[in-house]
Amino acid sequence: MNRTFFYPVLTVLLLLANFAFAQKQNPDGIKYNFNYDWRLFTGDDDQAKNTSYNDKNWTKVNLPYAWNQSEAFKVDITRLPTGIAWYRKTFQLPAKSKNQKVFIEFEGVRQMGEIYVNGTFVGRHENGAMAFGFDITSLIKPFPQENVIAVKTDNDWKYKEKATDSGFQWNDKNFNANYGGIPKNVYLHIKSNVYQTLPLFSGLGTSGTYVYASDFDIAKKRALINVSSQVKNEQTSAVNAQLKISVADMDGKVVATFLGETATIEPNEIKDLKASKALNDLNFWSWGYGYLYNVKSELVVNNKVVDQTTIRTGFRKTKFEKGMIWLNDRVIMMHGYAQRTSNEWPSLGMSVPAWMSDYSNSQMIESNGNLVRWMHITPWKQDVESCDRVGLIQAMPAGDSEKDVTGRRWEQRTELMRDAIIYNRNNPSILFYECGNESISEEHMAEMKAIRDKYDPNGGRAIGSREMLDSKTAEYGGEMLYINKSARLPFWATEYSRDEGLRKYWDEFTPPFHKEGTGGTSHTNVNGSKVADASSYNHNQDAHAIENVTRWYDYYRERPGTGTRVSSGGVNIIFSDSNTHFRGAENYRRSGEVDPMRLPKDGFYAHKVMWDGWVDIENPSAHIIGHWNYDSSVTKKISVVSSADAVELFVNNKSLGKGIQSYQFLFTFENVKFEPGTIRAVGYDKTGKKICETEIKTAGKPAAVKLTAIQRPGGTLADGSDVAIVEVEVVDEKGNRCPTALNMINFDVQGQGTFIGGIAQGPDNYIGSKNIPVECGVNRIMVRAGEKQGEIKINASSENLKTGTLVIKTIAVDNAKLTTVMPDHQLPSYTKKGPSPGTPSFKKTRTPIAIIDAKTASNQTDAAKSYDDNELTEWSNSKDGNPVIEFELEREALISQSVIKFAGWRSKKYPILIYVDNKEVFNGTTPTSLGYVTLECKPTKGKKVRIELAGATKDSNEINLVEITGKVDQAGLKSGDKKNGELTIVEAEFYEPLDK
């Protein structure tokens, strides 16, 4: 069975027709895919830059291609091969390109790239992250002469900038997997001598075309569409020029055309030309609704079109205030993933076809994630554009490691941010610019903000940094691991839930019977210190999924609608297992909700349940953690993740009663005895009405191998670059997956394709091996299409099982050295979630009562810091002072809840007494948390609330979190602040019920 992943299938006839049409376009202002037919040599040969150099024995490759990508997941990040590698390409310009401008664009080279054209040095790019380009007009030979482009690359971890001898902060062995050479796309642009520039500041110093919307009326589906295009005149005389704009919807229908004002551009002058028009009946880009328009900007000079560029973009409205984020006038709480920018796959690294980026990124949407925060380093354009198509919000960093810097290294960061903003400012999915993985100074924040304001003043994007909690300049913030709240800026956790766990391990009762938490570590923390306790990095799937539920609970509890100060959510680290910093028994990071081949773990489905809504849950659902294929002697705890108010469990239609609810979404059933058949969970609302249901059935004995193809929409292309994913399952006689199977599968690939492989636990992680075991009854491999149309035949055999067979037909495509068929050609958008709903995204759950004053006999000068909406300040009773503070409220209110952030929130428990107008309403010990605790009070009317420490605080290790440095964070406690007689309050809040 073939499965072309989630998009509508395009017919082969339509696909070929589109390819043919693309070849007939006007060469003025044309962009060519320059990826095909390169030669690669790993090593250094200075003569390789010369035109006469003989490269016939070099390896033939198509870009994108990292020369060390076959090592991805085979070795850990610190052992990825480094060194010099050369790439060369021989080509002819099109016959009609005489006397035109020629530019080359690289989406990125790692770490350094030196470009030579016909033996002449053109330029060097060294930051290893961002796109750059060069004007090669004067060096190129016209048709029919041949040209040679040679690129020398160096991906040394310690590479230093030639001019300054400064390294790059983000060239880091912990975070930024080192896929060397040219791992991204390359393009060639041919333009007239009066042209719209390219958005390639590095190398060209130009900013290209800027498209944005303003004056929104979301309800009426109306906005003003604005185009500003930088135009350069390289003729010897002045010209009169204007922009002609056409806007086409996703069906290709032109919905508007309009002209800009005419301007005179002098020789060698660069000028921004503008055009704008209000459009009606717009479809606004949204979460899970990747609606995009093609905005074609034609440059008209003396009444003739001389240049054109097409920007694929979407239009959406944003707002960032009152601690919340609005998208198209609807509040949205951030829930998603902090994903490594490399976003890599086994044996391929990051250099995958564009459709595989869509497949991976759309899975985040399928799990109900709405945000991906790329970590430490700017994402490559393919992933940026992919997020546009699938409707996934992005936080785009520049470059960082773990701290603020000064001098040249800070200048490098500002230059990278400048280049990234210019290159990506037309991509609607980017809502956040991140200036640092740690807090930066206010001066540096202002500098970054000025760059945003200069190059993207109208993009509707907030700029900020991690841990900018008291910044007056940043427009958003948030810590890692902990929860922050604000009535001012939106705060969302930039990464939380660091735990790791293999997909291979269901639980302790399932082969290979991995005991939860065991396995040790083969790695250290980023500062070189030893991992003292590796249990959190060697989870079973059961425990890993439950940890994800536990960690999200704190954020959901403080969501929009719960008061004036709220959390705007957070992102789980990470989405897919990554060839980067790890601390478990294996040599790669296994925090993902899917494995490296994007096979879901149970945590994927847990998030899908908890995140099903913009803020409040909109579609109740349930997921039973684990499987139902045990030995008859097994009795175990069953956990169900559900957004229902109550869950009942049935085994073979026999009720086991209601589960114990914890952390809002977790329902536990103790001592469930296995019986072959069906286990079913039914969710109910508060009235007892059934609102969701799910079940798992016992599979039979393994009988056969089943293969399923996951392909590019429209089919696999015979271009020598496209990849098909093949899912392999061990199934019973009825075709049901056998969830405990661990069979070794032997693969044989014939025809117009080659075997790439997959990953599993074993020698070298089975990278490149044609013999790979299934894990939990399933695994995946990849095959690469050849350059000839035909069939790829895959056989998968295993001892005592029926062999699985699969045939993948490949489609002919133009893969010439210069082609206008782009890597993302005809990739459709994901629109499953539909436009932004016009209804509210949350219901108010309680009424906050403002504090207007605080009195204390101990350290009165700091009393206001306990309610100042600044989590970097706090009140604490002084030494030998009385641990009591009394708050005066704005009015008399029926107080039913106290929400407090105590210092040491995850490691200290405070025995607390709370009084409302001298009446005791709470007497108990606070739980540990990721920040705030909610203390249920006896509803009492009053205007003054007094909090007292009733005894010594107690230390707790219930929440086992360790910073990546290996240090245990003090969670708001000042240095040496470990005295158990202190009451330390970071923020205090009081609430009355809605139905008072």
UniProtKB/TrEMBL annotation:
Keyword annotations from UniProtKB, A to Z = Glycosidase, Hydrolase, Signal
Provide the Glycoside hydrolase family 2 immunoglobulin-like beta-sandwich domain boundaries. Answer: 216-316
At the top level, the lineage of the source is: Bacteria
Entry-linked PANTHER family: BETA-GALACTOSIDASE, BETA-MANNOSIDASE
Keyword Hydrolase included in the entry's annotation: yes
Q: Signal peptide: which range, if any? A: 1-22
Q: Name one GO molecular function term.
A: hydrolase activity, hydrolyzing O-glycosyl compounds
Q: Which family does it belong to?
A: Belongs to the glycosyl hydrolase 2 family.
- Please name the GO terms of the biological process aspect recorded for this protein, alphabetically: carbohydrate metabolic process
Domain DUF4982, by residue range, is 637-692
Keyword Transmembrane on this protein? no
- Identify the taxonomic lineage of the organism of origin: Bacteria, Pseudomonadati, Bacteroidota, Flavobacteriia, Flavobacteriales
- Name the InterPro entries on file: Beta-gal/glucu_dom_sf, Beta-mannosidase-like_N2, DUF4982, Galactose-bd-like_sf, GH, GH2_Domain-Containing, Glyco_hydro2_dom5, Glyco_hydro_2_cat
Q: Which residues form the Glycoside hydrolase family domain?
A: 718-806
Q: Where is the Glycoside hydrolase family 2 catalytic domain?
A: 320-457
Cite the SUPFAM superfamilies for this sequence: (Trans)glycosidases (SSF51445), beta-Galactosidase/glucuronidase domain (SSF49303), Galactose-binding domain-like (SSF49785)
User: Where does the record place the Beta-mannosidase-like galactose-binding domain?
Assistant: 86-171
The identity of this protein, by name, is Beta-galactosidase
